Amino acid sequence: MVKLGGSCLDELDGAWWDDLAELGRTRPLILVHGWSKPLKRFHPRHRAPSAILRDRYGNQSRWTTPEVIADIKTVSAGLGIQVIDLLAARGITAERLLGSDGLVRAGQAERWWWRDKQLVELENRVGPITGVDTEPLKDPRPGHAHLITPLARNEAGQEVNTDADRAAAALAGAVRAARLVLVTDVAHLLIDGEPVRRIGARAAAEFRDKGATGGMRKKLRAAGEALDRGVEQVVIGSAPVTDLTAGRTGTVITRE
């Protein structure tokens, strides 16, 4: 299971894709993609500070309306074509799945968010993942990849936005993946300015709650959820996937 960060998709060069394709020739690939940077390029409204909300517990989320969902789907369709073409050029077939098409279920969204230094009630079409149906991921086989856009559907039948890292964690657990690789634009987890090559789940959770910020905090939360769901290792980094899974670079997070 590989999560392709929306912040780094444009920076993944041909050698990176060669490496992924080589891996995909010997085992099935499931890819989950983000969309943060492409969405910001798509329309100025996604770059505005008001596009990001913070809930009463301090968690950040994109303010997601039906219009934002439509923009995410438009951007993701383009990303899907790009990724499928890159794999096809290297002999790997691929198909794209929307998580909201029966694959990923979401729970009730937080309704209270900070706006102008006040907590106000807002409808924000986001939600925590509550379940995964692996039936759409049928027929996994070497030489073929599934590319998942991590939208979900809530109990009211609405399409909702989910955090891509945490969606990848839920999917990895559901398909019993041995490893989850979070490909991002940073080489390692840093603690006190020093790169961390290997860390246990408990220590990672302590740092997440006391020192991590922004995107890394979400990645550490996703790592903990993946390990709790039976994944053996989570690797965070910016290198080719085989280098990350071999522990030659990046940060490896283990159950302990």
Instruction: For the record, give the distance between the C-alpha atoms at the N and C termini, rounded to a whole number.
Output: 20 Å
Q: Total helix count? A: 7
Largest sheet: 8 strands, mixed
Strand order of the largest sheet: 5-10-2-1-13-17-18-16
Which regions have little confidence, pLDDT < 50, spanning 5+ residues? none
Number of domains: 1
- Identify the CATH class: Alpha Beta
Number of strands: 18
CATH topology assignment: Carbamate kinase
**CATH-defined architecture:** 3-Layer(aba) Sandwich
- Overall SS class: alpha/beta
Q: Provide the helix percentage.
A: 25-40%
- Calculate the mean pLDDT score and round it: 94
Give the overall silhouette.
Answer: globular
CATH homologous superfamily (4th level) name: Acetylglutamate kinase-like
Estimate the strand proportion. 25-35%
Rg on CA atoms, Å: 18 Å
* H and E order: EHEHEEHEEEEEEEEHEEEEHHEHE
